[in-house]
Amino acid sequence: MRLAFAWLLPSALALGACSARDSAVAEDGRERLVGLRADDLRLCAGVPNLTAQSAGGEFWTYDRTPPAAGVSAPVPVIGGSLSVSAGSSCRVTFQLVDGKVTRIGYSAASDLPMSQNSACAPVVQGCLRLVDTNEVRRE
Questions:
Q1: How many beta carbons lie within 10 A of that of residue 32, not counting itself?
Q2: What burial class does residue 133 get, using C-beta atoms within 10 Å of its C-beta: 0-12 exposed, 13-18 middle, 19+ buried?
Q3: Which region is the signal sequence (predicted)?
Q4: Whole-prediction pTM value?
Q5: pLDDT (tens digit, 0 to 9) for every residue of the chain, 139 residues total?
Q6: Quick one: which of 18, 2, 6 has its CA closest to 85?
Q7: Which residues are 108's β-sheet partners?
Q8: Cβ distance 121 to 110 under 8 Å?
Q9: How many Å apart are CA 110 and CA 44, to the nearest integer?
């Protein structure tokens, strides 16, 4: 039984560290993608799930629910299993004015503390990579 718990704790810590890193990537995107042109956003994030128009501009929304990551260890003494998982979902909304990103909002849910926006990272990660390699520019 100790063996099951010996690898469970490091696995849970690694899972939490990855989620915290992804949350930081999402927060980085909130700042660094402002000014991105609409065509470049579509290139790196894809076609949005929803679009809307208002007096405040155009809004593109991306919904993402990545597969849950987790660790499961059978505990035969108890007769069941012990698991630690990180289920999460994310909605990213980009506000565009005059064809450029002006704000990014996240609506995310996560089962892990300190990783609120971790599921949002895949939406902005590709765009950040293109900004970093100067393949797209912010204006």
A1: 16
A2: exposed
A3: 1-16
A4: 0.70
A5: 555 444 444 444 444 445 667 678 888 899 999 999 999 999 999 999 999 999 999 999 999 875 555 444 444 445 454 444 445 688 999 999 999 999 999 987 655 555 678 888 888 999 999 999 999 888 8
A6: 18
A7: 90
A8: no
A9: 24
